[in-house]
Amino acid sequence: MKKIIKATTSLWVVAGVLGLATFVHLYDRAFPEAAIQFAKSRGEILGQAKRFLEAQRPSLEGYSESLIFTNDAQARIFLERTLGLTEANALTRTRVKVWAWQGRWFRPLHKEEYQVSIAPDGELIGYTHLVEEATPGTYLEADAAQALAVQWLAEHLGLDISGYQLIDEDYTERPHRSDHTFVWEEPGFNVQGATYRTRVTVAGDQVVEFSKFLKVPERWIQQYTQEQSKGYVTTVLLTGGYGLLGIAVLWVFLGALKRQLPKWRLAACVAGGLAMVQISSTLNAWPLAKHGLQTTQGMGSAYVWLVTQAILTGLTTALQVGITAIAGWFLAQQVWGKGPAAQLIPAFTRQGTRSLLQSTVVGYGLAGVHLAYVSVFYLASF
Hints:
A hairpin with a 4-residue loop joins strand 5 and strand 6 (about 180-185). The longest helix is centred in the middle third of the chain and has 40 residues, at about 220-255. The protein has about 375 residues and is an alpha+beta fold. The protein has an 8-stranded antiparallel beta sheet with strand order 1-2-3-4-8-7-6-5. Helix content is about 55%, strand content about 15%.
């Protein structure tokens, strides 16, 4: 029996090493994140965004700021599926910017805010100034507004769109101003029907929105939406399977309650420790929560909501781990009796230490195999 266990452990070590080597070898081809080249640091990007905004308005004093790294998922997935990961990565490093640092400056309980998107190489690819519909301005004719948009692109971005094709324009009349939106298409670019476009919105006599984006064909979007719907149904069905497993665990736990629970203190300690980790992880997500904060919500209420969410998720984690641990111990007793194999933690015995070491090695071996599986799966999907 010992020889079998030793041989099995050795096989998992070999499998883990091979899996890790496969993951490292395929990483650049299997994961789009590998194509990102950060020419500037987070601090440099933030400084660049502030300097750009200061050129649009006198001061950002009193505004809260946040900065996250994000991507245009729809455009990225379209390119990966139509061109393949290698060619898509090469394109997103140079011409089509789907990855971006997104900065936000806002004041709680005020609608007005500023957003700036900058690609990893430092190119400005988006700007938004949200204003109230009733904010006063001027009424410009379409030609004057278009000339203002073209001039703004040249002065602030150094972008000459004289060779671009104007493919769409929109007019909206506000209570005290007129808003114009113009969309230009970049010449010489077409990937399976997708084009690269530049959009500018002029509110009154001020540019309040600019973006560069990949216009994905509507037909592809419809097909992708259908795939997502099927994936959602599959997720619900699989979640139902987890629900059945949870009911089974709870049933075993209730059976253990009727007999004895000599290890409940140990289970409580483990569950409590993991609950603290979960609470810390939730609180650590504050920068993301702050970035997504609605301007109709105060900062104080956002703090309270995040702390409440952290506590609830922590308690849920503690209950799940505690109940599962006790149910597992109870099942082990039923299968193996009350020997060392039935203990939640095999204590500090020689046999227990060896068993714990072997289990740890097998666990790392499984992790290596899983990394290889994910890499091959992603690569085969494109």
